[in-house]
Amino acid sequence: MNISYTILIPLIPLAVFLLLGLNSKRIKPAISGYIGVLGLSISAALSFYTAYQYFFVNGKVDGVYQTFVNKSVWMHFTETLHIDMGVLIDPISVMMLIVVSIVSLMVHIYSRGYMKGDDGYTRFFAYLSLFTFSMYGLVLATNLFQIYIFWELVGVSSFLLIGYYYTKPSAVSAAKKAFIVTRFADLGFLIGILIMGYFAGTYDFETLNNPEGSVILSWASTSFMGLSVITWALLLIFMGGAGKSAMFPLHIWLPDAMEGPTPVSALIHAATMVVAGVYLVARLFPMFYFVEHGFALNVVAYIGAFSSLFAAIIAITQTDIKRVLAFSTMSQIGYMMLALGVSGYDGHEGVGYMASMFHLFTHAMFKALLFLGAGSVIHAVHSNYLKDMGGLRKYMPITNITFLIAALAISGVPPFAGFWSKDEILVAAFEHNMLIYYVGVFVAGLTAFYMFRLYFGIFWGKEQTYKHPPHESPISMTFPLLVLALLSVVGGFIPFGEFVSADRMGFEGHLNYPLAAIATGVGLVGILLAWVFYKKENSLSDIYAKAFGPFYKWTSDKFYFDEIYLFVTKKILFNGVSRPFAWFDRNVVDGTMNLIGNSTVKTSNKIKGLQSGKFQDYAFSFVMGAVIIALVFIYLWTN
Amino acid sequence: MIAGISIYEILTVTSILFFIGVYGFITRKNLISVLISIELILNASVVNFVVINKYLYPDMLQGVIFAIFIIAVAAAETALAVSIIINLYRQISSVEVKDTEVMKY
């Protein structure tokens, strides 16, 4: 399979970024929107072509999906250790290409309506293109170091887009927070990469992931503090993934990242960038599975399960609709992580891996839809808060229907997309770890509850009197909603197991009816509860909030994690570490340099009188010097 | 070869000429006099070139040619120096050395 053209998929958005970014003042906003959409359409078309070629024409050899690599050496260290640049085509990278293409294209189209009239319209599209380029590069990376480079690039574009409204202090601090927290996590990632480079001797995914390869077979050769060094490297790499995917305890940046424009939240903080951590674990899945009998994978599973539960609980009490969605994203990504964590490798054992990727795919569709729907609502009522909304179903029929579809999909109601992927996840958990299975089922109920709390709160509930009567959004905004709604309905019928599986063989997915019934039942209970609490205006929710008392307060304050972080950084780190270092730097390091500088200045002031300006003085000194040297030489020669 | 005069006598004369020039360069108060002193220094070295050529390598001409070079360069240098002095005079209406002392830190 000739894949050399796939390099164009990331390069076209890069070209668009350069074109728009360098000419942001010269290109008219209307044109820049078209350029962005056009560039991305070409990339998306190429992605679909690649997917078709790969999955249906010539990707499969003897029933196994092959890996196609096209790369060249970029930095050469030793024979085995070198950093390459190139593209890697395998089932998950092709699947991610499709996800990124669809969501990014829809968000581009949507932004043309949503951002209309904004001052930085062209800048916005330039950043979107930069992000899309980085994400494609991340997905297609052939080795750990290349993925790290693009990993940082998506971090930068996320920073730029969160801080897009840079005149708003909250947006600026949210951007900084997101950047610093993920950067801290990426420090772990980098250390993991370096450990991997030293002990495994290669960054190449194919070599690392080969189950019969030397890296996996000889994982036990070096150990550190009771664990194999390779396990340490994987845990550190997972730390990077957890930072990007907002896993507990590195999740604090994601809710604040909602300060960015809503299309950005849909693209970056719901569908694509935040699942990069899941993608990274999936990318290194054979290593996670085989090294140290899956120790690192268990860590992934428990962190995923805990994050998913933790975020779902917080989501119930939030009042900012975008924050509810942010915590919901965190919860669903936790789901994907736990699915990876409970996955096996061969055949049907690998159902968790497949379910995780499946859920990533369906989640991207319905979560992007939820965010874009929320953006449409915010566009209409000019507020993020539930208290300013209610009864919008009459004003915004399309948004209402599409939001309902997305909410049903995320709640796991058949036949919507989320049902199928969530069911596979629960099957995987049921087969491998009962504790995680119970957490998963409970979270499924919570998800349905908070999602319908949101839905009823926005579109039903108490009738508001609006200053400006809200109206349905323009076609450029409703079209993406409809496309994504369609995908959220039919996405679940894709036989995902045949395309994506841990051992690349593919298997027949089938529904486990008792488990599916339990999950659906729990979801319906959640929806029913939300119906009782929020469909009509009533005081039930307040009564129960009071009944929970302090627990409700903790939850709505996100368990005080922001405050804990602030305490640790401001009180302990700043006072205990930074201030002494700053003192040392100002007084000892700078002091030495200042001493040298000052003494030079003082000496110069003392001796500057020698420069009298009388050239005859200089001539005299010169002649005297010459005479003295002459005398010295004469003395030396004559003795 | 000049009959009756040895190289040492001529070199003594040029040395005296050279140090007169140096002395004048350091002590004269007028920039034109300083310039003249520089000419004395140069002429002392020119005479040295010619004499040493004549006494040590009578068959060759390099020293003499070098002397001509120095004269040409000295003429150019004098023209330059005089133009600088004229410009200086336009600025400060003086060609006294003590009036040029402002050129310091």
Brief summary of the model shown:
Chain B: It comes from Yeosuana aromativorans. Chain A is 71% helix and 4% strand. Chain A is mainly alpha-helical.
Report on the structure:
- The complex is a heterodimer of chains A (about 650) and B (about 100).
- Chain A is mainly α.
- Chain A has two domains: about 5-250 and about 260-555, no CATH class; about 560-639, no CATH class.
- In chain A, about 70% of the residues lie in helices and about 5% in strands.
- In chain A, the strands form three sheets. Chain A has a two-stranded antiparallel ribbon.
- In chain A, a hairpin with a 5-residue loop joins strand 3 and strand 4 (about 80-90).
- Chain A starts with 7 loop residues before the first helix and ends with a helix.
- With about 100 residues, chain B is mainly α.
- Chain B has a single domain, classed as Helix Hairpins.
- In chain B, about 75% of the residues lie in helices and about 0% in strands.
- Chain B has helices at about 5-25, 30-55, 60-90.
- In chain B, helix 1 (about 5-25) runs antiparallel to helix 2 and helix 2 runs antiparallel to helix 3 (about 60-90).
- The longest helix of chain B has about 30 residues, at about 60-90.
- Chains A and B meet through helix 26 of A and helix 1 of B.
